Amino acid sequence: MKLKRFRQITAVTVVFLFSIIFFDIYGLVPHGVQRVLTSFQFIPSLLFTFAYGVTLVSAGFIVVFLLTLLSGRSYCSFLCPLGIIQDLSSRIFKRKKYIFMKEMRAVRYTILAVTAAVTAVWGSLLLVWLDPYSLFGRFMGNFLNKFILALNNAAAEFLLNHNIFSLYSVNGSPGTVFSVIVSAVPVFLIIIVASRYGRLYCNTVCPVGTFLGIVSRFSVVKIGINSDTCLHCGICDRSCKSSCIDSAEGLVDFTRCVSCFNCVSMCPNGSISFERRYGKAESLNDSNRKSSPSEKGAISRFSFITGMLVMPPWISALAVENKKLFMSDGSKLVKFTRKTVSSPPGSVERDRFNELCTSCSLCITKCPTRVLQPAVMHYGMRGIMQPYMDYSAGYCNYDCTLCGSVCPTGAIKKLSVEKKRVTSIGKVIFIKENCITFQQETVCGACSEHCPTKAVYMVPYKNGLVIPATDRSICIGCGACENVCPVRPVKAIHVEGELKHTVALKPAEKKSDQKQGDEFPF
Amino acid sequence: MLSRREFIKAGAEKLAGLLAFSALFPFGKLFADSRYPDLVAMKGGKGPDELFRKGIEYLGGIKSFVSRGQSVLVKPNIGWDRTPAYGANTSPSLVAEIVRQCRKAGAARVFVMDHTCDPWKSCYRNSGIEDAVKSSGGEMVPGNSMSYYKNVSVKNGRSLKDVLVHKVYADSDVIINVPVLKHHSSTGMTASMKNLMGVVWDRYAWHRENLHQCIADFAGFRPPDLTVIDAYNVMTRNGPRGYSRSDSINYRYLFISKDQVAADSAGAMVLSKTSPGIKKPDDIEYIALAGKAGLGKSSMKSMKIARVSVQS
Lengths: 522, 312
What we know:
The structure holds two protein chains of two kinds.
Chain A (H helix, E strand, L loop, with lengths): L1 H22 L7 H9 L2 H11 L6 H13 L2 H6 L1 H13 L11 H18 L4 H4 L1 H29 L16 H21 L2 H5 L2 H10 L4 E5 L9 H5 L5 E2 L4 E2 L9 H5 L5 E5 L19 H24 L30 H7 L5 H5 L5 E3 L12 E3 L12 H5 L10 H4 L2 E8 L5 H5 L5 H5 L5 E5 L5 E5 L9 H5 L8 E11 L19
Antiparallel strand pairs in A: 1-4, 2-3, 5-6, 7-10, 8-9
Helix pairs in contact in A: 3-4, 4-12, 6-10, 7-12, 9-10, 9-15
Chain B lengths: L3 H21 L2 H9 L3 E6 L3 H8 L15 E6 L15 H13 L4 E4 L7 H7 L2 H7 L3 E2 L8 E5 L8 E5 H5 L2 E5 L1 E5 L3 E3 L1 H4 L7 H6 L2 H9 L6 E10 L12 E2 L3 E5 L2 H12 L13 H8 L12 E6 L2
Parallel strand pairs in B: 1-13, 2-3, 2-7, 3-4, 7-10, 8-10
Antiparallel strand pairs in B: 1-12, 5-6, 8-9, 10-11, 10-12
Helix pairs in contact in B: 3-4, 4-6, 10-12
């Protein structure tokens, strides 16, 4: 009982802390908290070590590894947020008892082997879809976060009508249909599977689960059944989320055991214990039992309730979208096709970035200007859901280095503010023919106003007007100019991304031409 | 002898009578034009807050603008995520001083807001204005969501017929505009009238539809009751965002006026020293347009100016 309670309290705390960082729409949680929390996620910590060599963050996966050697797959029950929400799902929705199932050995080891090989060659290509933390992160960041946003905004609007400004609306797009589906569906499927079959996903698909399963064969402390006292009552089989106890034979499949201790607390006469075991792993004989749990009502009720919870705030989140004005005549505008999207500052090089990022969406959730958005095919097949700079959504704030501070895999390097200010992720392209000043002969200059380095500056045009000109050597590709350009449907100023980020020149600083004024100039 | 309570009561009654009387016969307003200058031009001092404290007395003190129980909007420029040293935003000390005086004069609530260019939370925080306002009794109001704005029609607007304006601008009893004077890459200069772009939702619509005319149109929608231009540390190039601290000159001026056009004209004259394109206020197109529309004086010669130098 004690062990199980300890596991439950830790697990709930971990999910609670993760919820806080992914739902922190006001940006109140210090970055250090996020770093510490994500460091203990196996894959991110491992990738971070590939990116930077051994650092403090590497301690995360080493700790997980040692923990597994000590006490089996505790990571899966105590620390993995995707595992914990599966437990919650089975706790809430489970109606039938579990039953021992044989291991799908071929499937899980094939997935592990392929993932390891692909990761070694192409980086995070498959981890994007298989790393449990990243699956969970996307679900939280691109999906559940939007409800928090919508609820907050509804509450803020309500208070606003009573002239109370303590809550405020948080700007943010509800996401594209693609990003929502890709983020929500896998986790929903996993939750639904968990509601009937417990940790089936973790023991069949998840490469981290399989890998730690291999390690846990050698664990010091393990679950074991005392064959002298065991009554073969089968209560432990039925309480095992991993379906890995065969009480008829008195065996436990350690590679699938997630150290949840449910069996320990359920055993009527204390025949199951979690203690130091000698000898090698005992593997199980195939069992002839077949699983046949079926209860159609459970699933349909489940989806109905989720649908009820999910739809209304979703619709209102969509309604928050800003009204957009368009110039009436788009035919006169020169078309622009971006060849390369920009990757976030600190991602150094496109290939490196695509190989390290697991699309956990933490940076996307945290980005204060919302310029970071999940990619569809912007990076090609390998970068789906990875963050890219969407200058229609926002622009990169000159002094902000937040994405690099929170990135758990090191795909986005942490930059100092000084370095960030000269890190060029793209270069400006001005299309004069689309410019308001060219088209209407009125003043505009919004692009130059926002340009932090004055790479976009104003030069004399006709009738005393001024028109933008650009200096690409000092441009850092922040996209402020493109974001604010009021021309529609094709803007007059764009940023073309750089595959390899460069160091931009610092703008020349002129000395101040005058000291303080003496007399009034009138 | 009168008890204290009776004394206060009697006093309050007399005051009420006086208020009612002056409401019927607004002598103050009759006198205002002759007694008070069009423009109070301050310079020197230890900071813009000190200049305001001394300068507002030339217009009869804050009490001639704010009465007990009123709601006040103090509208600084908080457009950019920059620290005070760059002069991209209004000095926090000046905003704090104005908020404090309004509260002292009995204002029920003092709101401060800007629809910023950079991310608003960073602007509010890093400009130092959020802290300054909160510690002096004001309230920071967000401007980042369309739901805070309401649609109003602009009378006599030529380019701007209707606009989504922040509800605290539309609904507050008193409006005090506290811009910072800066060079501006598009319009030549920003100060008072241009600062009001921070109370509307879609500023880029103005960029599409003749910016100068929109600024002048909106100046006539609801002219602020008082304008205080922070020209202490003036960004004279690379405005409105500025690149480095060397972009600004420490002029140490402050202009206070009930006439936003007059205040802007003074600002234009300061920038005329560094901007070759500006020789007179009317060289800023929106000042000329507002002057023509009868919103205020744009000729320095026609103004009654109180020039005050404060020892620093």
